[in-house]
């Protein structure tokens, strides 16, 4: 996408850290967010964080639960068309991707993110769920995992009603899926890639089905 430098050095953002306490305060005013399984988050190394998608604030909900590390999230290019929003998202490690197209520049950037030891956040469904329930995964998450040779951390964002003030949100981090367990060969076939994406999404669904904590 014009305006985003996919060749730039990938590093954590100072703005991200400065805004973390502000974001936490604002989210706590609007919602009741509970985190489960934060001990499953690796303290170092690159991996893909794959989550279901129910709201535009999902990257914020998830990111605030990761106190020691930063997320690098891909977002639809439309979000980056407004200069002000684009500047804000870019400073928070966001980068654009053209949905439904072979966006090689964005995919190569995503691969670099994890191969260089960072966390790539991705929503396998490709878009937000209108009924708050997980949907079918697209192949992108499996393609990136296979090319980067990195593990995947499944995460669920759960909300049983409409996103309104003081809604309860449960963010549940699952166990890391080693790359070797993704079931793909070096030159993965289309069937292997689809099966891998389906497996990753099934792990997310298992977490989602646990619902809220009592």
Structure at a glance:
With 214 residues, the protein is of the alpha/beta class. It contains six helices and seven strands, in the order αββαβαβαβαββα. Helix 4 (104-115) crosses helix 5 and helix 5 (140-148) crosses helix 6.
Can you walk through the features of this model?
With 214 residues, the protein is an alpha/beta fold. It has a single domain, classed as Glycerol-3-phosphate (1)-acyltransferase. Helix content is 34%, strand content 18%. The protein is built from six helices and seven strands, in the order αββαβαβαβαββα. It has a seven-stranded mixed β-sheet with strand order 1-7-6-2-5-3-4. Strand 3, helix 3 and strand 4 form a beta-alpha-beta unit. Helix 4 packs across helix 5 and helix 5 packs across helix 6. The chain is globular and about 45 Å long. It starts with 13 loop residues before the first helix and ends in a 6-residue tail after the last helix. The model has no long low-confidence stretch (mean pLDDT 91).
Give a quick set of tags describing it.
7-stranded mixed sheet, globular
The CATH homologous superfamily name equals Glycerol-3-phosphate (1)-acyltransferase
User: And the CATH topology?
Assistant: Glycerol-3-phosphate (1)-acyltransferase
Task: Give the integer mean of the pLDDT values.
Answer: 91
Number of helices: 6
Estimated structural class: alpha/beta
CATH architecture: 3-Layer(aba) Sandwich
Tally the structural domains. Answer: 1
In N-to-C order, the SSE pattern is HEEHEHEHEHEEH
Count of individual beta strands: 7
Q: Main β-sheet, in a few words?
A: 7 strands, mixed
Global outline: globular
If strands are numbered along the chain, what order do they take across the biggest sheet? Answer: 1-7-6-2-5-3-4
CATH class: Alpha Beta
Percent of residues in helices comes to: 25-40%
What Rg, in angstroms, do the CA atoms define?
A: 16 Å
The share of residues in extended strands comes to: 15-25%
pLDDT below 50 for ≥5 consecutive residues: which ranges? none
């Amino acid at each position: 996408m014009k305006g985003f430098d996919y060749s730039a050095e990938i590093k954590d953002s100072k703005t991200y850290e400065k805004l973390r306490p502000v974001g936490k305060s604002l989210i706590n005013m609007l919602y009741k967010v509970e985190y489960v399984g934060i001990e499953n988050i690796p303290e170092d190394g690159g991996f893909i964080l794959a989550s279901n998608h129910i709201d535009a604030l999902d990257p914020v909900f998830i990111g605030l639960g990761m106190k020691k590390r930063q997320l690098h999230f891909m977002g639809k290019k439309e979000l980056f068309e407004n200069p002000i929003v684009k500047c804000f998202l870019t400073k928070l490690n966001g980068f654009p991707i053209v949905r439904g197209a072979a966006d090689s520049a964005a995919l190569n950037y995503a691969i670099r993110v994890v191969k260089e030891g960072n966390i790539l956040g991705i929503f396998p469904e490709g878009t937000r769920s209108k009924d708050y329930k997980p949907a079918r995964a697209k192949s992108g998450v499996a393609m990136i995992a296979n090319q980067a040779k990195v593990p995947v951390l499944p995460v669920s964002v759960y909300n049983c009603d409409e996103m309104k003030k003081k809604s309860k949100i449960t963010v549940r981090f699952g166990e890391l899926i080693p790359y070797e367990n993704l079931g793909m060969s070096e030159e993965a076939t289309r069937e292997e890639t689809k099966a891998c994406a389906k497996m990753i999404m099934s792990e997310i669904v298992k977490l989602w089905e646990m619902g809220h904590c009592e």
